[in-house]
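The instructor's notes for this session suggest beginning with a concrete chain rather than abstract definitions. Hand out the sequence below and ask the class to guess, before any prediction is shown, which regions might be ordered.
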Amino acid sequence: MRILIIEDNRRLSDSLRKTLMEDGYAVDAAYDGVEGEDMALITPYDIIILDVMLPKRDGIEVCRSLRDQKTATPILMLTARDGLDDKVLGLDSGADDYLVKPFEIKELRARLRALLRRDSADKGSSLVIDDLRIDPATHYAWRGEQPLDLTAKEYSLLEYMMRNTNRLITREMVVSHLWDSDQSIASNVVDVYIRRLRRKVDDPYPTKLIETVRGAGYRIHDPERK
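After discussion, reveal the predicted structure:
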């Protein structure tokens, strides 16, 4: 999953970016409203974390402008203002959730997970394909009753594929969603991660779920869904 942080406090932005990358997200950062809006319009993000008090263009204006331009990406608004009218203004501008500074990182993580579930076609707490199951709240994964030992990036790749069951996932789509724009990615890195995932998710089990679409990319196949 790919996240955009629009926050002019660089210390907070860097801290959030580091934490979320350790959680397996790809994270880009913008430090003013104009830059953030431009990035949000160019790149398909899964979530935008948007500060209210920004230079050049404040978060309320950015949020309204993105919604006016039909950007449907979930927006989590950050602000030091905790008054009811401020919350109403933020939500009425098009934000999906509102978090008051200072906040605990556990709460931020929980709100991000809730927004991802809300935006997913699968609204349940777990994602399930055949006997493969993952829990986005804990980042645990199982095949049958067997826990899967996945790295953060492997888990993120598996979650991304499971949220797009039976859909073609190109290498470019994987890079766009799982790596931030500052990272230089080797041309075969997606194939490497797919091989690692197959060794853990498919190889020990009779039913194979991860398919290669020759010359195009990959998909995860749900035998119960056509």
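Then share the key points. The radius of gyration is 18 Å. The CA atoms of residues 30 and 58 lie 13 Å apart.
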